[in-house]
Amino acid sequence: MRTALVIGTGLIGTSAALALAARGVVVHLADHDPEQARTAAALGAGTDEAPEGPVDLAIVAAPPAHVAATLADAMRRGLARGYLDVASVKGGPRRELEALGLDLTPYIGTHPMSGREKSGPLAASGDLFEGRPWVLTPTRDTDTEVLNLALELVSHCRAVPVVMDADAHDRAVALVSHMPHLVSSMVAARLEHAEETAVRLCGQGIRDVTRIAASDPRMWIDILSANPGPVADLLADVSADLDETVRALRALQSSDEAKRREGAGGIEDVLRRGNAGQVRVPGKHGSAPRVYEVVAVLIDDQPGQLARIFADAGMAGVNIEDVRIEHATGQQAGLVQLMVEPKAVPVLGAALRERGWALRQ
């Protein structure tokens, strides 16, 4: 791949363009908002000038509702040798293209499983996709050359290719992305009119659960409108679990010992099923989940604190597998939770204490 055209310079399109440009691909940028394309170009993602002829690959990074129309326009104009989209749903756009009677041999649907709460080119990063799954949904009609171009794109972005059927993909993302986003929003919505004294008690747990609720509602309306059936089916199952859990909690209020035991059993069941599901979530880089232990360090809200901790851990020969920061409400301090291999805990603990850090159990 020597040339590419990115149509849609939001978070995903600009991030892909940055990754391609960094690897020597000549990238042309287009957007319905020319100012957004100019912003992406200024960030080093490519040029907002139109290509003089067909490029090797056109990447459509438009909202799901506009993907088919944007692709159809690009294909009819002969803008590229191969075409793909990066929308978060795959079955609907493909069927729309089929209904338009287009030759789909130069097209493949794709979906990079990466993102963040912020949108637009200024939120983009050339390493956004690194180590993340990138789903490809070829059909029997997809040309081999186009599949290879898509694989080259994934390689340039340092993502991990995953081949799936389009409708299977849509059911999967409903489970691991779309439904959780709505549930996160529902939990966050409980905070909107909560007493300030209650909100001040928010800890890391509620921050983790509600983090993705900060995303742009307009973007999510587009996503959910393109995949409503699978999401509704999953929410119906969640609703049934909620009904059972409410009944179990009500039973715990009963003066009848047998009902309380029944209620406790119902709560235990949902918690244990949660345990069983959580351990299936892949660990770093898609590997099997691993058990880490936590070394908790108290830090002041001062520049360079995290860098010092990581440097001290490195000097001790300890690899930090993951990190979380729990902020102390109303105080200029926080607790950094360093996740490490169990055997590294005593080594890291001793090294950090020796360098003056305050550890917490």
Automatic annotation (TrEMBL):
Residues 1-21 form the signal peptide. Gene3D superfamilies: 6-phosphogluconate dehydrogenase C-terminal like domain, NAD(P)-binding Rossmann-like Domain. It is an enzyme of class 1 (oxidoreductase). Its EC number is 1.3.1.12. It catalyses: prephenate + NAD(+) = 3-(4-hydroxyphenyl)pyruvate + CO2 + NADH. The keyword Oxidoreductase applies. This is Prephenate dehydrogenase. The keyword Protein biosynthesis does not apply. Belongs to the prephenate/arogenate dehydrogenase family. One of its GO terms (molecular function) is prephenate dehydrogenase (NADP+) activity. Keywords: Amino-acid biosynthesis, Aromatic amino acid biosynthesis, NAD, Oxidoreductase, Signal, Tyrosine biosynthesis. InterPro entries: 6-PGluconate_DH-like_C_sf (IPR008927), ACT-like_dom_sf (IPR045865), ACT_dom (IPR002912), NAD(P)-bd_dom_sf (IPR036291), PDH_C (IPR046825), PDH_N (IPR046826), Preph/Arog_dehydrog (IPR050812), Prephen_DH (IPR003099). It comes from the Bacteria. NCBIfam families: PRK06545.2-1, PRK06545.2-3, PRK06545.2-4. Pathway: Amino-acid biosynthesis; L-tyrosine biosynthesis; (4-hydroxyphenyl)pyruvate from prephenate (NAD(+) route): step 1/1. Residues 294-361 form the ACT domain. Residues 2-279 form the Prephenate/arogenate dehydrogenase domain. Pfam families: PDH_C, PDH_N. One of its GO terms (biological process) is tyrosine biosynthetic process.
